[in-house]
């Protein structure tokens, strides 16, 4: 890519020119949107029609001068792939801070926890050929009147919901109305918008019996029912209007796999006379079950399937002293060999395409791919590392500190996930 790769501050845009172009684009988008609405009727709109002038204004705008597409012409908005691009310097910084948002939980609160470098906060995800405007909390909340949004999955979804709450609380501060015993499943309500956000704990999405304490130490292998969905989310399915769903790293764990209530194999079980079965197999089988349910259920919320989030441990793993002390993003194409991550992502794409391509079942295109894999992979600098706890080096530099190179600092790279969701909603 010919562009420079600066950890240097962002260059100010040529505001006047880009402003004029943006205005034209907005007008165009708005007119096209209007025409489409007249043609197809309001039901295709994810935002209600009343929100559309602003929603149109919040749409993807083409960025002058940065296009990288082969044809060289101005890329069309509808052709812009929101998931393929690079991180560019962004001097304006994040949409919220450790001081302005009280929904950042301690393990993700890198700034408060004393992470010394801050340059990781000054990047913006820039798809090739278009710009993503920042998340607009007011438009989002106005469009979500009386709606119920669910984030279903593992602790990365918890990470994601904190980002969403931080963004939304700039307009209205939600009230927590439910949590389970362990605070893994939770629910918030925004009274003046009657908008509900649920975080639903279902780390495998399929039914799992986990024998693990708070610190992730297992007393026995996890038992995974590859053909039974986790009741925690399907029991609430009918109440959801929008869903972000994902699964991930838990599939790497040692587990006994069951189908039809019969043990069919095991992944990395020692001293057990069981067929070794790959996590790719269990992942694929589980995803199939999930997509089957989503596409055949008569209840059709808008579903964003969020793709794989990589971890960035170097020189070891979670449990063996691995760290992640990089301070700038990777350049595109320089992520190194990420074979396992790529394998899991490919499984997801294959299974998603099969499910979404089945027009008989996915008849209203309610299933959408939130393909955050590439943009996440490029951010080894966005994890808490040792700063998952408050001032970890207080007891001296030599203290042995476990690093978190899987979850994400907030504010941080995954705030872009919400910016993208906003665009996907507006685009429709
Ligand atoms: C935010 O982080 C800064 C820097 O670590 C710290 O001084 C400040 O107390 C933090 N604010 C809150 C509200 O945690
Ligand atoms: C609030 O939204 C829920 C759906 O999420 C709906 O069932 C309920 O009637 C709404 N309440 C009011 C007061 O409109
Ligand atoms: C392991 O399983 C095989 C096939 O089920 C059986 O023939 C064999 O006896 C078992 N070995 C042990 C040590 O249990
Ligand atoms: C980053 O961590 C590695 C060990 O994983 C260490 O060798 C290196 O010195 C660290 N770099 C910085 C800047 O702390």
Automatic annotation (TrEMBL):
Keyword Ribonucleoprotein belongs to the record: no
Coiled-coil ranges from the UniProt annotation: none
Main localisation: Golgi
Residues in Trichome birefringence-like C-terminal domain copies: 132-424
UniProt keyword terms in alphabetical order: Golgi apparatus, Membrane, Signal-anchor, Transferase, Transmembrane, Transmembrane helix
Location of this chain's protein in the cell: Golgi apparatus membrane
GO CC aspect terms: Golgi membrane
A Pfam family reported for this protein in Swiss-Prot or TrEMBL: PMR5N
Membrane association type: Single-pass type II membrane protein
Domain of life, per lineage: Eukaryota
GO molecular function: xylan O-acetyltransferase activity
Residue intervals passing through the bilayer: 21-40
Keyword RNA-binding in record: no
Limits of the Trichome birefringence-like N-terminal domain: 78-131
Family membership: Belongs to the PC-esterase family. TBL subfamily.
This protein's name: Trichome birefringence-like N-terminal domain-containing protein
Annotated source species: Eleusine coracana subsp. coracana
């Amino acid at each position: 890519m010919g562009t420079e790769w600066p950890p240097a501050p962002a260059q100010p845009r040529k505001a006047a020119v880009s402003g004029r172009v943006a205005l034209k684009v907005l007008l165009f988008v708005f007119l096209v949107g209007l025409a489409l609405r007249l043609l197809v009727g309001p039901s295709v709109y994810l935002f209600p029609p009343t929100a559309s002038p602003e929603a149109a204004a919040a749409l993807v705008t083409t960025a002058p001068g940065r296009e990288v597409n082969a044809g060289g012409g101005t890329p069309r908005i509808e052709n812009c792939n929101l998931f393929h691009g690079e991180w560019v310097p962004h001097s304006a910084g994040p949409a919220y801070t450790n001081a302005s948002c009280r929904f950042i939980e301690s393990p993700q609160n890198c700034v408060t926890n004393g992470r010394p470098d801050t340059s990781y906060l000054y990047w913006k995800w820039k798809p090739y050929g278009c710009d993503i405007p920042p998340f607009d909390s007011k438009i989002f909340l106005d469009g979500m009147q009386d709606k119920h949004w669910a984030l279903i999955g593992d602790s990365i979804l918890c990470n994601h919901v904190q980002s969403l709450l931080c963004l939304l609380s700039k307009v209205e501060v939600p009230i927590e109305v439910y949590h389970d015993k362990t605070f893994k499943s939770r629910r918030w309500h925004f009274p003046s918008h009657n908008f509900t956000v649920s975080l639903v704990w279902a780390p495998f999405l399929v039914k799992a019996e986990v024998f693990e304490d708070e610190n992730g130490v297992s007393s026995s292998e996890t038992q995974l029912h590859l053909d039974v969905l986790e009741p925690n989310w399907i029991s609430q399915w009918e109440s959801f209007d929008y869903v972000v769903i994902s699964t991930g790293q838990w599939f790497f764990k040692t587990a006994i796999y069951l189908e039809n209530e019969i043990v069919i194999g095991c992944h990395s079980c020692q001293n057990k006379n069981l067929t070794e079965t790959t996590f790719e197999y269990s992942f694929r089988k589980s995803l199939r079950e999930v997509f089957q349910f989503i596409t055949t259920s008569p209840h059709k919320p808008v579903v964003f399937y969020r793709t794989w989030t990589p971890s960035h441990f170097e020189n070891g793993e979670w449990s063996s002293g691995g760290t992640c002390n990089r301070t700038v993003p990777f350049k595109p194409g320089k992520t190194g060999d990420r074979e396992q991550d790529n394998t899991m992502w490919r499984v997801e794409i294959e299974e998603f395409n099969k499910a979404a391509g089945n027009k008989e079942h996915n008849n209203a295109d309610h299933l959408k791919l939130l393909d955050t894999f590439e943009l996440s992979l490029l951010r080894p600098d966005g994890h808490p590392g040792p700063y998952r706890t408050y001032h970890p080096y207080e007891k001296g530099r030599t203290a042995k500190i476990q690093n978190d190179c899987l979850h994400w600092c907030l504010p941080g790279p995954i705030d872009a996930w919400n910016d993208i969701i906003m665009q996907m909603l507006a685009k429709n």
